[in-house]
């Protein structure tokens, strides 16, 4: 009785449920990236850096603000992990992350995205809460295993969310809703870097895992109560909204008889491979900054832990705002026929690739000017937000029916960047110097530039022919009938009959 009354109130509230899902999707992605980034923030306080004394004075090296000589004061942490070990710890997440993308996409298409997405966040929250205990008792080995398990759980989130958006986002709102949800990445990084640094400063590094892990559990409970896989299963969606979604998307219920994912077609499609390569370059830049920007600000620029968190949050805040604005702008341009979809996706992807690469390189040449470095990273990451109305939504462009599987392939394979970049950076920056980091940022620029060239040349924003499941089913059925006819009429009559109109 109480439940039916609540449902009636929610139905009469006239809140479009696709926007409720968009907001909860945004908060879900924010929680995922907050918990993923906890270790990137906390590791600067967890690790005890040995004292390093320079044998020369070099204008390329930034002086520590707390010292007038060339000796750095050691950071007091609990763990003695060198740079390659830290890189392995930070990259362990992505070894698990890459494994569950395709299973996550298949499960979301088959059973719906609600629990596939929700359980991914839930498992991440549990692992986050366990991190301090595992670190204390099992050290680096335990953390590597735990981060691997976190990656396994979180690997389902992107394909599941893409499947949900395919059911809920009308064509002319696709960029806006997708950008809203995926902007949770930046929102999560803003919260993790700003609040995380303050929490660590005043209550120790362990607290950041307990606080954000608990928030993740609270989000999961709310998600289970108010969000659904498709409009048809939603108990308090309005009839008007359900009709609108049926007219614009082509149906409000998942196709439970959806033909099996055409894996061979996907893996031989040029637009899909262009998206994979473009996304790999984007992720190389994104993961370089997500996992290691706090380390750069700490080791090279010598911000303290609280300052580091606040300064590192500014680029993500700009990226978040840009990603939200550009999603609305993209939909506006499409509705007014200012640009067609393919050129628009390629233009936005190009800005989102060249901008952050150039910004990072220029930041490394800004030397020790903390303000200028922050401005360069802020501009670069702001422009990276353009990708959220291009690369991130492109799987929905190519195939609404198989968006989950495409996102699984794309985000899974592109996550190889996350496996490589933290460890590579650890190897390239043993002395944590500005000169070493400059090499890191030039590599980042090169990867972004060349991957974007591939996307611009081979990418597409149009629905692909193999998305039409009815044609594929008919084609497969006709093929089986012809195959049976060939066996039945082995004397050649069947060949003549097939030519009859």
Automatic annotation (TrEMBL):
<keyword id="KW-0325">Glycoprotein</keyword>
<dbReference type="InterPro" id="IPR005829">
    <property type="entry name" value="Sugar_transporter_CS"/>
</dbReference>
<feature type="transmembrane region" description="Helical">
    <location>
        <begin position="208"/>
        <end position="228"/>
    </location>
</feature>
<keyword id="KW-0770">Synapse</keyword>
<dbReference type="InterPro" id="IPR050382">
    <property type="entry name" value="MFS_Na/Anion_cotransporter"/>
</dbReference>
<comment type="function">
    <text>Receptor for CM101, a polysaccharide produced by group B Streptococcus with antipathoangiogenic properties.</text>
</comment>
<feature type="transmembrane region" description="Helical">
    <location>
        <begin position="403"/>
        <end position="425"/>
    </location>
</feature>
<keyword id="KW-0769">Symport</keyword>
<dbReference type="GO" id="GO:0016323">
    <property type="term" value="C:basolateral plasma membrane"/>
</dbReference>
<dbReference type="GO" id="GO:0005765">
    <property type="term" value="C:lysosomal membrane"/>
</dbReference>
<keyword id="KW-0472">Membrane</keyword>
<feature type="transmembrane region" description="Helical">
    <location>
        <begin position="88"/>
        <end position="108"/>
    </location>
</feature>
<feature type="transmembrane region" description="Helical">
    <location>
        <begin position="437"/>
        <end position="458"/>
    </location>
</feature>
<feature type="compositionally biased region" description="Basic and acidic residues">
    <location>
        <begin position="479"/>
        <end position="501"/>
    </location>
</feature>
<dbReference type="GO" id="GO:0046942">
    <property type="term" value="P:carboxylic acid transport"/>
</dbReference>
<dbReference type="GO" id="GO:0015293">
    <property type="term" value="F:symporter activity"/>
</dbReference>
<keyword id="KW-0813">Transport</keyword>
<dbReference type="InterPro" id="IPR036259">
    <property type="entry name" value="MFS_trans_sf"/>
</dbReference>
<dbReference type="InterPro" id="IPR020846">
    <property type="entry name" value="MFS_dom"/>
</dbReference>
<keyword id="KW-1003">Cell membrane</keyword>
<feature type="domain" description="Major facilitator superfamily (MFS) profile">
    <location>
        <begin position="17"/>
        <end position="464"/>
    </location>
</feature>
<feature type="transmembrane region" description="Helical">
    <location>
        <begin position="115"/>
        <end position="138"/>
    </location>
</feature>
<keyword id="KW-0812">Transmembrane</keyword>
<feature type="transmembrane region" description="Helical">
    <location>
        <begin position="20"/>
        <end position="47"/>
    </location>
</feature>
<dbReference type="InterPro" id="IPR011701">
    <property type="entry name" value="MFS"/>
</dbReference>
<feature type="region of interest" description="Disordered">
    <location>
        <begin position="469"/>
        <end position="501"/>
    </location>
</feature>
<keyword id="KW-0968">Cytoplasmic vesicle</keyword>
<feature type="transmembrane region" description="Helical">
    <location>
        <begin position="144"/>
        <end position="168"/>
    </location>
</feature>
<feature type="transmembrane region" description="Helical">
    <location>
        <begin position="310"/>
        <end position="335"/>
    </location>
</feature>
<feature type="transmembrane region" description="Helical">
    <location>
        <begin position="180"/>
        <end position="202"/>
    </location>
</feature>
<dbReference type="Pfam" id="PF07690">
    <property type="entry name" value="MFS_1"/>
</dbReference>
<feature type="transmembrane region" description="Helical">
    <location>
        <begin position="347"/>
        <end position="365"/>
    </location>
</feature>
<dbReference type="GO" id="GO:0030672">
    <property type="term" value="C:synaptic vesicle membrane"/>
</dbReference>
<keyword id="KW-1133">Transmembrane helix</keyword>
<feature type="transmembrane region" description="Helical">
    <location>
        <begin position="371"/>
        <end position="391"/>
    </location>
</feature>
<protein>
    <recommendedName>
        <fullName>Sialin</fullName>
    </recommendedName>
</protein>
<dbReference type="GO" id="GO:0006820">
    <property type="term" value="P:monoatomic anion transport"/>
</dbReference>
<keyword id="KW-0458">Lysosome</keyword>
């Amino acid at each position: 009785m109480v439940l039916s009354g609540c449902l009636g109130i929610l139905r009469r509230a006239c809140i479009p449920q696709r926007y409720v899902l968009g907001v909860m999707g945004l908060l879900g992605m924010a929680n995922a990236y907050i918990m993923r980034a906890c270790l990137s923030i906390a590791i600067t306080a967890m690790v005890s850096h040995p004292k390093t004394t320079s044998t020369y004075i070099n204008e390329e090296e930034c002086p520590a603000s707390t010292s007038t000589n060339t000796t750095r004061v050691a950071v007091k942490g609990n763990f003695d992990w060198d740079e390659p070990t830290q890189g392995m710890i930070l990259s362990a997440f992505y070894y698990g992350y890459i494994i569950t993308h395709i299973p996550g996409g298949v499960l979301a298409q088959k059973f719906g995205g609600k629990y596939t997405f929700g359980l991914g966040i839930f498992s991440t929250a549990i692992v986050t809460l366990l991190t301090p205990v595992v670190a204390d008792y099992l050290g680096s080995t335990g953390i590597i295993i735990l981060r691997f398990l976190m990656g396994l759980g979180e690997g389902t989130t992107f394909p599941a969310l893409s499947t949900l958006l395919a059911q809920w986002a009308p064509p002319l709102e696709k960029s806006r809703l997708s950008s809203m949800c995926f902007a949770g990445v930046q929102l999560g990084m803003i919260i993790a870097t700003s609040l995380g640094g303050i929490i660590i400063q005043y209550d120790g590094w362990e607290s950041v895992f307990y606080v954000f892990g608990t928030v993740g559990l609270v989000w999961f409970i709310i998600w289970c109560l108010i969000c659904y896989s498709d409009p048809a299963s939603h108990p308090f969606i309005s009839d008007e909204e359900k009709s609108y979604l049926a007219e614009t998307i082509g149906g409000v219920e998942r196709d439970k008889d959806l033909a099996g994912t055409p894996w061979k077609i996907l893996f031989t499609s040029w637009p899909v491979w262009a998206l994979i390569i473009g996304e790999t370059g984007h992720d190389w830049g994104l993961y370089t900054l997500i996992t290691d920007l706090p380390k750069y600000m700490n080791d090279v620029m010598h911000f303290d832990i609280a300052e580091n968190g606040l300064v590192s949050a500014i680029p993500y805040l700009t990226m978040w705002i840009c990603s939200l604005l550009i999603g609305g702008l993209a939909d506006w341009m499409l509705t007014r026929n200012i640009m067609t979809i393919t050129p628009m996706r390629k233009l936005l992807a190009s800005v989102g690739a060249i901008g952050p690469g150039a910004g990072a390189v220029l930041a490394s040449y800004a030397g020790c000017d903390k303000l200028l470095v922050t401005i360069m990273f802020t501009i670069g990451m702001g422009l990276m937000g353009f990708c959220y109305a291009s690369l991130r939504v492109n799987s929905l462009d190519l195939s609404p029916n198989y968006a989950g599987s495409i996102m699984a392939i794309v985000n899974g394979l592109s996550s190889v960047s996350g496996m490589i970049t933290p460890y590579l950076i650890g190897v390239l920056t043993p002395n944590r110097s500005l000169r070493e980091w400059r090499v890191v940022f030039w590599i980042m620029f090169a990867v972004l530039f060349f991957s974007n060239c591939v996307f611009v040349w081979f990418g597409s924003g149009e629905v692909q022919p193999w998305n039409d499941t009815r044609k594929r089913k008919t084609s497969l059925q006709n093929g089986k009938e012809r195959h049976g006819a060939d066996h039945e009429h082995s004397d050649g009559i069947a060949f003549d009959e097939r030519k009859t109109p």
